[in-house]
TrEMBL record:
Pfam families: FAD_binding_8, NAD_binding_6. This is NADPH oxidase 2. PROSITE patterns: FAD_FR. Residues 19-129 form the FAD-binding FR-type domain. It comes from Pedionomus torquatus (Plains-wanderer). GO terms for cellular component: monoatomic ion channel complex; NADPH oxidase complex. It is found in: Cell membrane.
Length: 302
């Protein structure tokens, strides 16, 4: 028995030593941005830190808790000179981080007063493979939209730098959420990309649909009154918000008809139930002929 136990224990001890060493490396918070609905963005720098799109890190703030590590998806792109996370204030630890960063105060916070942060990572996810396909479907549910902030930013940087060498030619993006106001920072990112793509006469590069899955009767009446306006009343985007849930069978069939003979990457960050649905649709809409259309499913559950 001891032969079977010693090996895993040795590997576990090595992993804990590596994490302890990483936690001692200096991390500098360069900027704290307060977004609506109690969401903060931490922009940080760390010597030797290298990331890919969609990866995540573990964060510890000793001022709040000396033992707790919490995972957060990176929302910055590898091309940027910093790495960032978005933190929604929904519990004791995030509330403590919010107060430690001085976000509860009205006056300007000096940089040297910001708390010390320990970072472990980054760690890989399926989203890293997004650039291996010419056509991709990105599906984010609720807070699962955060990995795609990094993906869309990186796509834009690569597109501006050298669009001819970018294998990715078409993005279909789906965002399912109960309340878009909780993620207004992401709507701002989409709005920026929408404007920039139009300026470069390539508005078709990114197709996106936002599905609002929760609303009450008064909200529905307000939406109906303003439906004819040029921009959406919720997000401020030209693409109007849809209500309910997507008909995934129709979506897959439409995309398959527009990209015959292609390998299409399907990337999800969301609940397990949605993963089962997309996996079944990916299989049923892929052709048996090797030269036909094939949907390759990748998931990241929470």
């Amino acid at each position: 028995t001891w032969k079977w136990v010693v090996g895993p224990m040795f590997l576990y001890l090595c992993e804990r030593l590596v994490r302890f060493w990483r936690s001692q490396q200096k991390v500098v918070i360069t900027k704290v941005v307060i977004h609506p609905f109690k969401t903060i963005e931490l922009q940080m720098m760390k010597k030797g830190f290298k990331m890919e799109v969609g990866q995540y890190i573990f964060v510890k703030c000793p001022v709040v808790s000396k033992l707790e590590w919490h995972p957060f998806t990176l929302t910055s792109a590898p091309e940027e000179d910093y790495f960032s996370i978005h933190v929604r204030i929904v519990g004791d630890w995030t509330e403590g981080l919010f107060n430690a960063c001085g976000c509860d105060k009205q006056e300007f916070q000096e940089a040297w007063k910001l708390p010390k942060i320990a970072v472990d990572g980054p760690f890989g996810t399926a989203s890293e493979d997004v650039f291996h396909y010419e056509t991709v479907m990105l599906v984010g549910a609720g807070i699962g939209v955060t990995p795609f902030a990094s993906v869309l930013k990186s796509v834009w940087y690569k597109y501006c730098h050298d669009a001819t060498n970018l294998k990715l030619k078409k993005i279909y993006f789906y965002w399912l959420c109960r309340d878009t106001h909780a993620f207004e920072w992401f709507a701002d990112l989409l709005q920026s990309l929408e404007v920039q793509m139009q300026e470069r006469n390539n508005a078709e590069f990114l197709s996106y649909n936002i599905y609002l899955t929760g609303w009450d009767e008064s909200q529905a009446t307000h939406f109906a009154v303003h439906h004819e306006e040029e921009k959406d009343v919720i997000t401020g985007l030209k693409q109007k918000t849809l209500y309910g849930r997507p008909n995934w069978e129709n979506e897959f069939k439409t995309i398959a008809s527009q990209h015959p003979g292609s390998r299409i990457g399907v990337f999800l960050c969301g609940p397990e139930a949605l993963a089962d649905t997309l996996n079944k649709q990916s299989i049923s809409n892929s052709e048996a002929d090797p030269r036909g259309v094939h949907f390759i499913f990748n998931k990241e559950n929470f």
